[in-house]
Design goal:
Blueprint lengths: L16 E7 L2 E6 L2 E5 L7 E6 L3 E7 L2 E6 L2 E5 L7 E2 L13 E5 L2 E5 L7 E4 L7 E2 L6 H5 L1 E6 L3 E6 L3 E5 L6
Antiparallel strand pairs: 1-2, 2-3, 3-4, 5-6, 6-7, 7-8, 9-10, 10-11, 11-12, 13-14, 14-15
Length: 171
Amino acid sequence: GTTWLQAYSGLSSNMTVNNIVDVQGVLYAATSTGLMKSVDMGGSWQPAGTTNWAVQAVHGSGNTLVILGTFGAQRSVNGGATWTNSTGYPVTIAPQGSDLMVYDGQFYAITKSGASGCYRSVDNGATWTAFNDGLSAQNTFVQEEFHADAEHLYIACALDCYRIPSLTTSI
């Protein structure tokens, strides 16, 4: 494209958008005042089951959404209509800068809470365990963001960048 087009109908002027993700053709925006969704690729936005609390990150797979926010890690199996708390996530309030990624059918989270580091869920966000094997102690403490391509999941840390290979093979 050559020009940015505004896509804010339904987003309020007091919201900060922390991240946006496309889950099966629906856009979800993690904002400072809740989770928002757009079924018309950003033309208009509506609340997605959370209001009046911060959502730092959102990601999804199939009908499952996972958020990191004011109440820690939560998941929805019905597109955000209802939410349940995840277990094993190390913080009860996800700080700003928390990040989520779905890769190889698993959820990965950057906790932004000191030595907790990276966490992984292999059951669609229901439970979480630490996933820091191979990271230096300094880089377990300071992680910034994820990136993924067809062959690797990358994690950017304070001092280095790490990657893990995909477990799936395509023919």
